[in-house]
Amino acid sequence: MASLPAFAEAKLQIRAGTSHDIAAALPTPLIVVGPGDEIRFANPAAEEFFGAAFGVLRRRKPPDLADPGGALVRIAAEAKARGAPVVEHDVPVSAARDRAGMVDIVAAPYAEGVIVALHERTFTRHPGRQFPEGTLRSLNGMAAVLAHEIKNPLAGIRGAAQLLEESVDENGRVLARLIRDESDRVRTLIDRMEMFGDARPVSHAPVNIHEILDRVRKLAQSGFVRHAALREEYDPSLPSVPGDRDRLIQLFVNLVRNAADAVPEAGGEIVLSTAFRPGMRLRVASAQSSRGLPLEVCVRDNGHGIAADLLPHIFDPFVTTRPHGTGLGLALAAKIVAEHGGAIECDSAPGRTAFRVLLPVCGEEA
User: Fold this and answer.
1) What does the alpha-carbon distance between residue 248 and residue 174 come to, in Å, rounded to a whole number?
2) pLDDT digits over 87-105, tens only?
3) What's the chain's Rg over C-alpha atoms?
4) Is the Cα torsion angle 193, 195, 201, 205 positive or negative in sign?
5) How many CB atoms lie within 10 A of CB 195?
6) Are β-strands 280-284 and 289-292 bridged in parallel, bridged antiparallel, or unpaired?
7) Is 148 in a helix, a strand, or coil?
């Protein structure tokens, strides 16, 4: 455990028995980086994470710990220069006992130093391109085959059912309507598969996110959200988003529809909220850099929640908990977010599920 003299030497004005004990009790790895990029404090969780006591860590520089490309120092410097917290998602690390993976780094200025916390992934996120190239190519091909091989004969089946409906008794008409309705359902599934496999580039133009959400609210309240209360908590000063209006509407319709399926018949509530998070950044592994995602749109509901074993897979195609669901709604949502250079994340517990979409804004530099 870091000693009290270490805090005094760091001149960070952390009082014994208060902030010191709180920092020591936190399960999140936490260090303090000084003006010379030296480590001035590490809590026990950081010692465990890096596999070294504070006496060893204080003799090392942050890039020596678990920081390919110097992201930790860069984020700390940015937080100090801004005088405000900075968050960067999906930073690769390799720590003690060969612990490797992605963390979110949160840096906040404090007195003469910068407090840096490393959050290991505790929720589900799909940033950037969601699927490996081979998987995406296979899905595109499968969608094309389904469209070509099934749509034409399906139209014939539906037309035959309509003709039968006009020439049979009531029992026969019931069966004919069943054939027609199931044909429509399969056609709808194929249409969604085609949309999911659409690899055409997205045109980006400045879009007002609140106009998008207003359209989504009207569509929802006139149809699938009649049984639930729909509230809005907006930041009216948000800048425009570079994107495709129709695809963004589809994105949030899918998320609101998903929430509507989860809330109870009585007392159900869905909340749409927006916020500006200027310190939010996403690591871009292919470019060894990061891009800003300061605009956050959240769709929150008070439904039954998502099972813990299902949560890591909710953005995969054909994964669903609904008896008649297709499992393509959230997969398509993640694809649209990826096309807009953003990220989508979800955390869930009984009575509260939140999907957060993080997007770039017009004029934002990487």
Assistant:
1) 39
2) 887 777 665 545 556 778 8
3) 25
4) negative
5) 15
6) antiparallel
7) helix
